[in-house]
């Protein structure tokens, strides 16, 4: 039974991911500011602050996989330090597109206008790529709620083409890595919905 901790468990992707993980043979720990109030059963819920190294060490100890549901460089440094202290090697982090200037036109112009220039700097990938961890960094395009669980997984070095993806598809990518259907280790993966390539913007904008 794999032991998985979700850091930032109150987010919108975990709301989709957690019920799917509960169908698998895993032991879940949910960590976040208000984790104790989350509406899940048969999980460990630990309220805490991801900016606190001691709290991170306690919650990461004896886990097999860390799923980090947000992208903050300083917190990522702390998570990596906690993983070193506890010997945990596997982390999957939700991140942003554009960290390599890889977003292709026509979508790039709209994306830059919406995101601003600074958002692609000071990201967790800068920490993960210099670590010795088995990391997967998800460069996610614009998210929406829906039932489509299909995704395109684009490796680092390829143009980023897709304008949208469902949170359900992101959750599927995470699960596929957890169960071994995929093995995106030491990888920064662009994720978008098949058919959303070469759009000027997401259809929901």
TrEMBL record:
One of its GO terms (molecular function) is biliverdin reductase [NAD(P)H] activity. Residues 8-176 form the NAD(P)-binding domain. Gene3D superfamilies: NAD(P)-binding Rossmann-like Domain. InterPro entries: NAD(P)-bd_dom (IPR016040), NAD(P)-bd_dom_sf (IPR036291), Polyketide_Oxido-like (IPR051606). This is NAD(P)H-binding protein. It comes from Ligilactobacillus agilis.
């Amino acid at each position: 039974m794999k032991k998985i901790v979700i850091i930032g468990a109150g987010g919108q992707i975990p709301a989709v991911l957690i019920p799917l993980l509960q169908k698998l043979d895993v032991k879940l720990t949910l960590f976040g500011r208000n984790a104790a109030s989350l509406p899940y059963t048969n999980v460990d819920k630990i309220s805490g602050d991801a900016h606190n190294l001691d709290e991170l060490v306690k919650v990461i100890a004896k886990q097999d996989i860390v799923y980090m549901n947000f992208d903050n460089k300083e917190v990522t440094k702390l998570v990596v330090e906690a993983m070193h202290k506890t010997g945990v090697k596997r982390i999957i982090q939700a991140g942003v597109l554009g960290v390599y200037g890889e977003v292709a036109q026509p979508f790039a112009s709209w994306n830059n206008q919406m995101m601003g220039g600074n958002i692609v700097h000071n990201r967790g990938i800068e920490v993960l790529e210099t670590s010795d961890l088995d990391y997967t960094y998800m460069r996610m395009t614009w998210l929406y709620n829906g039932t489509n669980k299909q995704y395109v997984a684009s490796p680092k070095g390829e143009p980023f083409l897709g304008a949208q993806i469902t949170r359900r598809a992101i959750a599927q990518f995470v699960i596929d890595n957890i169960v071994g259907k995929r093995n995106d280790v030491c990888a920064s993966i662009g994720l978008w919905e098949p058919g959303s390539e070469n759009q000027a913007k997401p259809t929901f904008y």
